[in-house]
Protein 1
Amino acid sequence: MSGRGLEDLIEQNETDLGFLSAYGGGETPEELHQLISHLITGDMEISIVDEGVQFTLKNPQLPLVKSDLNRRGFLNGKLDVEGVEVVITDFGPEQRRFIERLAEFIQNE
């Protein structure tokens, strides 16, 4: 019985999992900033931080709940009466929907 060694499995996973980047993850803070800057609108503010991109929107009536900030790709989320602040660490479908939802809200306000 021939088994596969740990090195073989690690090597396979390094080459076979590249498609996952299409779902977000692995971007540098600078790449995240570029991706997100095309989506922001109105009073949305972004800045590069060590972990990713700091996203801030001051508005007391945002259509968000705290669980919106507890998903993969978000860090240090804070939602209060002043607005939302969160670090975006990955850019995938959830982060895109989050920003697009807030942009739509601002446009319809």
Note: Strands lie at 45-49, 52-58, 74-80, 83-88.
Protein 2
Amino acid sequence: MDFSFMNIITDKVAAVLEPQGYKRQKVDNSDREYAALFTGESNAYMVMYNAKKQLVALKVCGMDSDGPDNSWKSMNTWIFDPEKDDNKEASSIGNDFADALSVNKPKISGKGKKKNSDDGNADPRFFCKRMVNVFPELKEEIWEEEDGYDPFRGVTFAQKHIVPKVNELLKNGNKQSISKLAGILNAQYIAGDLNTRSIITIVVLNGIKPELDSKIEGELSDVLGKAWGFAKKYRTKKVKPEKVKKVNNKFAEKLGQ
């Protein structure tokens, strides 16, 4: 199989990782699977393509004395069909992976090191801006929110502007668009701070109409899928909007639980 499109994606990932000291390792690829491995001092990244599933994935794991510990976690996933998609789509995927790496620098621990589960630092504003990649019309709505309120009301904005669009996409969208949405949710759940993770599970995913759950469940990472499973018990409870001009830390802590 011709994996030239993966060179486009991998080169964009390398442009972010190599200046940070990551080295690309030689990997034996088959004609149905492709992988590019980058190793650093404390973690490793892999860009993978599965021809059978037509899935491109960016993954991360920790490093131990023998190399990658192989406890891979998905950061982002996209659908790519070589018969329908072109280099422009590959470039878009590469840019998305590079963007995720630039913001999300997970402290994946090796042996003897403790990983802090709250290492993510991307805030709700950043999360909402990432969703523009799926819903371009959000750009003007974000500008209006930024002009009218301080701080940015992540919960209110997600309820009003993101949740209806997600439901519409799941109802009428194609598989590739849904996969793109799931990829952003997966990446931002890892990259996000406590508020962002809560918005993704309690507001966005719980805001999906139950009959549409199956459209996205299989696209979510194991980490996010498990988190949403715990969050579903709050599905029937109303989430209160933030107070304008004041950050409601207690609310964020409650959602994080």
Note: Confidence is low (pLDDT under 50) at residues 106-119, 246-257.
Protein 3
Amino acid sequence: MVPMSSKDYYSRKISKSEADNDFIFILKNKLSFFPQLGEDFILKDGEISCQVQVKSYPCTCRGPERPHEHYFIKWEGLKPENKVEIKKIMSKNNEYTMKVFF
């Protein structure tokens, strides 16, 4: 069995902001793991299957002289400190699975 590399999945610990606003932040350097910004794809968590998109919003959290974008996937029901792990289903086009660890 070949161990998975970090290129095979995306994982992160959910922050209070993410949980309160029903989204999963996507780090800019991990955007290439997902379909293009705004492109529909299927994300499955157990029996739940949703059509989602990676979206963005403008931000100045680093100050007005350093505007940038934050990237996210809308997803309800996550709690602060949950860890999510998203994997691409290699045999299916634009389908991903997600596991939530409590």
Note: The beta strands are 9-13, 23-26, 41-45, 48-52, 55-59, 68-74, 83-88, 95-101.
